[in-house]
Amino acid sequence: MKEAVDRLVERLGGLAPTVAVVLGSGLGSLVEDVENALRIPYAELPGFPQSGVTGHAGELVAGMFSGSPVIMLAGRSHYYEHGNAAAMRPAIEVLAGIGVTTLILTNAAGSLHAEMPAGSVMLIEDHINFSGANPLIGEASDRRFVGLTETYDADLRAAILAAAERVGLRLHRGVYMWFSGPTFETPAEIRMARILGADAVGMSTVPEAILARFCGLKVAACSVITNLAAGMTGAEMSHEETKDMAPIGGARLAMVLKELLKARLDG
Ligand code: HPA
């Protein structure tokens, strides 16, 4: 951890971002808006995940975004790649270690509402961990008992909603349900998810949100809707569709994040 922190601080050369953004499937193009981008492959940062999912590059990009210094993590490790829910722990600890105080998580997700179709963006207000996994299993200290009553910071959520309003985007709000993947859900699981209170389903984000809270970071998360969930249209789900559709909502989310970061988010 210390080695990765020291290496990153050295590479950043005085840039001291307090905000980091994790880019989900198909959202990697956000890094194109980072000015004077410094790109560091995860392979050069000890402990950072080596992701194997297509649509995830696996590099840290640092620079100025909308006038604020930011770090973007292009590529995340998913639980379904290896069964390790804590795979992002070193990366998140390193971010906290270099002074990041706010983590914005993004993902591609399936929608449970016909009125929230592909291309929509949903602000995650809360989550349901349906995976049975938790990144803090095995953590030996009492720090593991993290309260998740307000996982997604209320002030940050309000700031994101206000930014969306300023750019004229209708931002949906809802509950994200984490399924382990890598299979997509069955129609019966989607009916269950709806009964249980979910608005969108996906295979990521929840472990990082838990880890970020564990590290004392403020968290916000947004889903880019790439499809209506299984059984809602009759069409089969596919990762191709996720990758094809993510840039549409991704461009909308990029507008919101640019607006959000115009005003410096203080720690
Ligand atoms: N289910 C789970 N994960 C997803 C989906 C989905 O329908 N779409 C994009 N990621």
Q: Keywords for this structure?
A:
binds hypoxanthine, Rossmann fold, 7 helices, five-stranded mixed β-barrel, alpha/beta
Descriptive notes:
- By secondary structure, the protein is of the alpha/beta class.
- It has a single domain, classed as Nucleoside phosphorylase domain (Rossmann fold, 3-Layer(aba) Sandwich), CATH 3.40.50.1580.
- The chain has 7 helices and 9 strands; from the N terminus they run αββββααββαβαβαβα.
- It has helices at residues 2-12, 79-82, 89-97, 154-166, 187-196, 206-214, 239-262, and strands at 19-23, 35-41, 59-65, 68-74, 102-111, 121-129, 171-178, 200-202, 218-228.
- The protein has a 5-stranded mixed beta barrel with strand order 5-8-7-6-9.
- α5 (187-196) links the parallel β7 (171-178) and β8 (200-202).
- It starts with a helix and ends in a 5-residue tail after the last helix.
- The model has no long low-confidence stretch (mean pLDDT 94).
- Bound molecules: hypoxanthine.
- Hypoxanthine (HPA) is lined by residues 108-110, 179, 184-185, 201-203, 226-227, 229, 237, 242.
- Hypoxanthine is lined by residues 108-110, 179, 184-185, 201-203, 226-227, 229, 237, 242.
Give the full name of the CATH homologous superfamily. Nucleoside phosphorylase domain
The strands making up the biggest β-sheet line up spatially as 5-8-7-6-9
Number of E strands: 9
Shape: globular
Our count of domains comes out at 1
Spans of at least 5 consecutive residues whose pLDDT stays below 50 are none
CATH level-3 fold name: Rossmann fold
- CATH class, named Alpha Beta
Order of secondary-structure elements: HEEEEHHEEHEHEHEH
| Unique ligands | hypoxanthine
Mean pLDDT: 94
What portion of the residues fall into strands of 2 or more residues? 25-35%
Distance between the termini: 22 Å
Question: Would you identify the CATH architecture?
Answer: 3-Layer(aba) Sandwich
Helix amount: 25-40%
Q: How is the main sheet built? A: 5 strands, mixed, barrel
* Structural class by helix and strand composition: alpha/beta
Number of contiguous helices? 7
